Amino acid sequence: MNKTILITGATSGIGKACAYQFAANDHRVILTGRRMERLQEIKSALEIQFQAQVYILQFDIRNQQEVESAIASIPYEWSHIDILINNAGLAVGLNKIHEGLIDDWNRMIDTNIKGLLYVTRAISPAMVARKSGHIINIGSIAGKETYPLGNVYCATKYAVDSLSKAMRVELVEFGIKVTQLAPGAVETEFSNVRFKGDDAKAESVYNGYQPLTPEDIADAAYYCANLPEHVNINDMVIMPFAQASTSVFHKVL
Ligand code: NDP
Ligand code: 8X3
After folding, report:
1. Is ligand 1 within 6 A of the CB of residue 88?
2. In angstroms, rounded to a whole number, what is the distance separating the alpha carbons of residues 235 and 109?
3. Could you give the CA distance from residue 142 to residue 240 in angstroms, rounded to a whole number?
4. Parallel/antiparallel/unpaired status of strands 235-238 and 83-86
5. Consecutive H or E run containing 223
6. 139 lines ligand 2 (CB under 6 A)
7. What does the alpha-carbon distance between residue 180 and residue 160 come to, in Å, rounded to a whole number?
């Protein structure tokens, strides 16, 4: 049966790959992000390539009112959301804690924690009422191990780890599955954002080893979303083979 999947942060990277993965397999997708042009391009591409049904919603996940009114504006025929992929997120800056930029901290906390909460709060009540649904949170290996200079980004992903557990224990009685995917290095726009547009520095993050692709994570999300009813993946840590921990890489340069 076709499902409806709402994916936050679908304009790039892991979210975009999830949009392709689910749309290619006959599911209806609701794609969200701030960059409207990209949402429109991806919608057209999915419609042409897979004859997919695609609905797009532009909002800044940090703005509670924008999130609420965007979700409330979803037409009735799209309102039965089977799967929510809480993917939108970012790292900004790499500084020691005593040199950290408060604005960077606020962006990460507001996006990765508060944004994820706003979307979940807006969408989960209908799942609870229907007694079915699946929430897939994109955490990170950074939510399992803290690394030097990762401080606030790691803290936000530890929060996602904790919220994933909280959602699971609170929503199980309503028939809602909760899965966290915790990837290591995935080559997306993540490092371009972290290094604030210094693309050479961003590229160097992935030198000397094979990072994960966004499609690797979309495959995992698709796998978790298509298990028998009695099976749930609670938590999946997915690493490039060459990355043994947050800071141990086998690089051949
Ligand atoms: P990208 O930068 O490629 O994609 C991030 C997505 O998040 C974009 O679609 C962006 O859309 C969206 N987003 C960011 N801020 C906002 C906002 N304020 N409002 C709405 N949407 C927003 O990075 P990734 O695909 O790598 O990141 C996706 C998730 O994966 C993040 O949660 C990240 O922490 C996590 N992750 C990434 C890893 C990696 O190595 N790449 C490893 C582990 C986890 P737009 O700019 O259009 O709003
Ligand atoms: C992204 C992976 O190791 O750069 O969550 O924090 S890492």
Report:
1. yes
2. 22
3. 14
4. unpaired
5. helix 214-225
6. no
7. 8
Which one of 20, 153, 158, 222 is the catalytic residue? 153
Residues forming beta bridges with residue 83, ordered by sequence position: 5, 134
Give the pLDDT confidence score for residue 216 in this predicted structure: 99
Q: Is the pLDDT of residue 120 over 80?
A: yes
**Residue 153 is among the residues annotated as catalytic for this protein:** yes
Q: Residue 1: what pLDDT?
A: 59
The structure tokens 């949009």 sit at: 19
Q: What is the pTM of this model?
A: 0.99
**Is 246's C-beta closer than 6 angstroms to any atom of ligand 2?**
yes
Sorted by where each begins, the domain ranges of the chain are 4-238
Q: Where are the beta strands (DSSP E) in 71-113?
A: 83-86
Compute, in angstroms, the gap from residue 81 CA to the centroid of ligand 2. 29
Q: Which CATH class is domain 4-238?
A: alpha beta
- Return the ∠ at Cα 83 (arms to 152 and 233), rounded to 5°: 70
Task: Give every CB contact of residue 230 below 8 A, 6+ residues apart in sequence.
Answer: none
Separation of alpha carbons 53 and 106, rounded Å: 35
Residue 38 CA: which ligand 1 atom is closest?
47
Ligand 1: residue whose CA is nearest its atom 32 = 89
CB of 186 closer than 8 Å to CB of 217: yes
Ligand 1, atom nearest to 61 Cα: 19
Atom nearest to 187 CA in ligand 1 = 41
Distance of alpha carbon 70 from alpha carbon 74, whole angstroms: 7
C-beta of residue 29 within 8 angstroms of C-beta of residue 7: yes
Question: Does ligand 1 lie within 6 Å of residue 183's CB atom?
Answer: yes
Per-residue pLDDT of 49-95, as tens digits, reads 999 999 999 999 999 999 999 999 999 999 999 999 999 999 999 99
